[in-house]
Amino acid sequence: LKNLELDYRCDDFVVNDTKLGLVQKVREHLQNLENSAFTADRHRKRKLLENSSLNSKLLKVNGSTTAICATGLRNLGNTCFMNAILQSLSNIEQFCCYFKELPAVELRNGKTAGRRTYHTRSQGDNNVSLVEEFRKTLCALWQGSQTAFSPESLFYVVWKIMPNFRGYQQQDAHEFMRYLLDHLHLELQDGFNGVSHSAILQENSTLSASNKCCINGASTVVTAIFGGILQNEVNCLICGTESRKFDPFLDLSLDIPSQFRSKRSKNQENGPVCSLRDCLRSFTDLEELDETELYMCHKCKKKQKSTKKFWIQKLPKVLCLHLKRFHWTAYLRNKVDTYVEFPLRGLDMKCYLLEPENSGPENCLYDLAAVVVHHGSGVGSGHYTAYATHEGRWFHFNDSTVTLTDEETVVKAKAYILFYVERQAKAGSDKL
């Protein structure tokens, strides 16, 4: 019985069942027991939350008492990487509102409409919807009815469709974000209730066809908001042949320039502080490819030395910037703990555009919406938290704990992922 329980716990499958199927019967019994225990525990926790005082969500702001409507996310076992990303995405208003306004699965042409079917070795076919569980989680985060929400249903779906994130070990928040956005995009492409998501997007004037960037097929809200286009320009240094390629992106991964990697804090006086502009310039500057990256020149008909340069051909509505803090050495993946200065508002991206003259001044300005921070020394350890702004106030999200903070604290953070939202109306003239 103990071995069978371990089999269920680790999601492995025992093939040496008896002719009467006793192993399967025990497995089903264990699953029923766990489901019963889980349901009872959930009811108990809900009752405790309902009876808890609202004083835990009250803060003094400018001398008066105000309620925090933000909700934390419980850590299910090293799931801070997921919590930080979910809290950040929940504060990207246009993206979050789209999902919150979707009808529940049960209201879409039958109980299984909009769900994708996945197979697991020990539990057979299961109808799960990442979009649906993501929608439920976003709806729970800003209701203000509870101090913390447990995202176990969403995490269950993540385990089913993203095998890389099974288990309870620490994971890379950026890698999780990319998997999450990619799978949301794929599921949304399937459409539901007989209506494609392209048609649904067209109903929203702020997500018009001109703002879409298709990645792996038809556009969805994911590509409409996070999608941009890069131009990759390669020049052969022997014959001068130029090759251009356009690549869609959902985020940009930026190196921290090597000359800044020994500077760990903003207050150190040994040299200039690394800024986000330095990282963006390093990403877009002309670069000569080394011997391991020789370019296959079609005119020379062999691999040649070449230069490479990136231009941004189209900026997204939400610019996600990932600072590459983790690097492999011979045996370990080390962290670059350098402080990188970043603006809260007025990030000007015009100088990185391929055709800046075709963009208005406001279309190139971005204001910060959220920051994911990694605390600790390695990607497989440490802890993730997030800062995000909501209705003009900054919050710090540390799993189930949500605290009000200020801009001075946010700008001191050692950012790992930055979410910038395109400025829609004229505001302050602060620029990077």
TrEMBL record:
Pfam families named in the record: UCH
Superkingdom to which the source organism belongs:
Eukaryota
Q: Which residues form the USP domain?
A: 71-423
Keyword Protease among UniProt keywords: yes
Per the record, what are the reactions this protein catalyses?
A: Thiol-dependent hydrolysis of ester, thioester, amide, peptide and isopeptide bonds formed by the C-terminal Gly of ubiquitin (a 76-residue protein attached to proteins as an intracellular targeting signal)
Any one GO cellular component localisation term in the record: nucleus
* UniProt xrefs under PROSITE patterns: USP_1 (PS00972), USP_2 (PS00973), USP_3 (PS50235)
- What's an example Gene Ontology biological process for this entry? proteolysis
Could you list this entry's UniProt keywords, alphabetically sorted. Answer: Hydrolase, Protease, Thiol protease, Ubl conjugation pathway
GO molecular function: any one? cysteine-type deubiquitinase activity
Known EC number(s)? Answer: 3.4.19.12
Q: Which family does it belong to?
A: Belongs to the peptidase C19 family.
Function in brief: Deubiquitinating enzyme that removes conjugated ubiquitin from specific proteins to regulate different cellular processes.
Q: What name appears for this protein in its UniProt entry? A: Ubiquitin carboxyl-terminal hydrolase
Q: What is the lineage of its organism?
A: Eukaryota, Metazoa, Chordata, Craniata, Vertebrata
